[in-house]
């Protein structure tokens, strides 16, 4: 998965725009501004609960086209959140998508190269439409140490998985091999246990499952930053609570595609194991004062968006709309985002908080989750 998606020369994400109607799949921010606006309001609300600490950053993992961040920054500007006390950090490995994001978020700066100071952890920097610093990083470990609002929308589903199956009461890994007769790729079972089989399987009841060590490592890094520096995490993705088995698949032109056919031309994805992410986020670290981070969720997208006001936002937009086609599109977007048969039940929300927020959250639970 890692090779097919992020190979520097021919990786799926590295040299093309794969989003939207002309791409291979569409995401919630591309469907309607309402999605990003509500996420921004939620983040501002939770940041306020923390005492509005400054300086702070919002860090998005895998920002896509930058559409979600653009909608959020517009809302942040309405709350007068900008300037030197606030910055944006984008974790992006695709050079092509980095350029797309810069054009989206920094329209007046996109044609002017901004020099990155020598020794910096980021590889690109610019100024947003609203005056905030935006910096691009290769990995979450490179981010500045400060209070951080972490956001991961459809990020974890693209991280590499290992597929494990039980054979004669022992675990084996599903590997990918080359059929030398016809030169096609094929699945094979490992002869013995592989390192991936060391995953916590003692109490596992499933006969097959998918594990993503990279997802667990990144979640633990996020949890550690939240514990040490302060912050909040919001993860949005399609997934399950540790009960699904075979979800690895490809998408091309908005249709399912065999992952082993024409690798590099289709998106590869697997449902996120949210139970595993919650386990990773709450595991003890080496800190002497460690107390497990708090997790809320998962909740379905339809419930989260409805609870924080998407119906009211739709009414506001329709009230100011004078174009019949625009109004029709707004209603259609609302339905796609919230209908259980569309994205409403498919996508899940998970929130991470530091343990010091426990008493505050008992009194003021996070909106959208209750």
UniProtKB/TrEMBL annotation:
Its EC number(s): 2.1.1.320
Catalytic activity reported: L-arginyl-[protein] + 2 S-adenosyl-L-methionine = N(omega),N(omega)'-dimethyl-L-arginyl-[protein] + 2 S-adenosyl-L-homocysteine + 2 H(+)
Subcellular location: Mitochondrion
Domain of life: Eukaryota
Keywords of this entry: Methyltransferase, Mitochondrion, Transferase
Keyword Transferase: yes
Any one of the GO CC terms: mitochondrion
Protein's GO biological process: methylation; mitochondrial respiratory chain complex I assembly
Keyword hit for Cell membrane: no
GO molecular function, one term: protein-arginine omega-N symmetric methyltransferase activity
Role: Arginine methyltransferase involved in the assembly or stability of mitochondrial NADH:ubiquinone oxidoreductase complex (complex I).
Recorded family membership: Belongs to the NDUFAF7 family.
Protein name (Swiss-Prot/TrEMBL): Protein arginine methyltransferase NDUFAF7
Gene designation: EOG090X06OK
């Amino acid at each position: 998965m890692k090779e097919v998606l992020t190979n520097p020369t021919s990786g799926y994400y590295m040299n093309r725009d794969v989003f939207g109607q002309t791409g291979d799949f569409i995401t919630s921010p591309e469907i309607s501004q309402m999605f990003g606006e509500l996420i921004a309001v939620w983040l501002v609300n939770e940041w306020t609960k923390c005492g509005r600490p400054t300086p702070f950053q919002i860090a998005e993992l895998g920002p896509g086209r930058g559409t979600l961040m653009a909608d959020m920054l517009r809302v942040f500007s309405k709350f007068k959140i900008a300037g030197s006390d606030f910055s944006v950090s984008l974790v992006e490995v695709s050079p092509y998508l980095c350029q797309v994001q810069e054009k989206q978020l920094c329209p007046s700066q996109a044609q002017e190269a901004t020099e990155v100071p020598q020794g910096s952890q980021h590889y690109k920097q610019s100024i947003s439409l609203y005056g905030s610093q935006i910096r691009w990083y290769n990995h979450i470990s490179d981010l500045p140490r400060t209070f951080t609002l972490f956001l991961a929308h459809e990020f974890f589903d693209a991280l590499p998985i290992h597929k494990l199956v039980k054979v004669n009461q022992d675990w084996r890994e599903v590997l990918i091999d080359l059929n030398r007769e016809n030169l096609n790729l094929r699945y094979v079972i490992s002869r013995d246990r592989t390192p991936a089989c060391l995953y916590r399987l003692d109490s596992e009841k499933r006969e097959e499952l998918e594990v993503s060590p990279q997802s667990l490592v990144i979640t633990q890094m996020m949890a550690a930053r939240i514990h040490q520096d302060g912050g909040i995490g919001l993860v949005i993705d399609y997934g399950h609570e540790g009960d699904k088995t075979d979800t690895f698949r490809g998408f091309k032109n908005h249709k399912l595609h065999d992952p082993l056919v024409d690798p590099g031309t289709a998106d590869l994805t697997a449902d996120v194991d949210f139970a595993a992410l919650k386990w990773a986020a709450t595991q003890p670290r080496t800190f002497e004062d460690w107390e497990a981070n708090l997790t809320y969720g998962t909740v379905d997208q339809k419930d989260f968006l409805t609870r924080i006001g998407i119906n009211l936002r739709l009414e506001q937009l329709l009230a100011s709309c004078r174009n019949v086609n625009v109004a029709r599109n707004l209603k259609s977007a609302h339905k796609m985002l919230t209908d259980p048969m569309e994205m409403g039940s498919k996508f899940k929300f998970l929130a991470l908080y530091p343990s010091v927020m426990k008493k505050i959250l008992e009194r003021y639970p996070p909106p959208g989750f209750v």
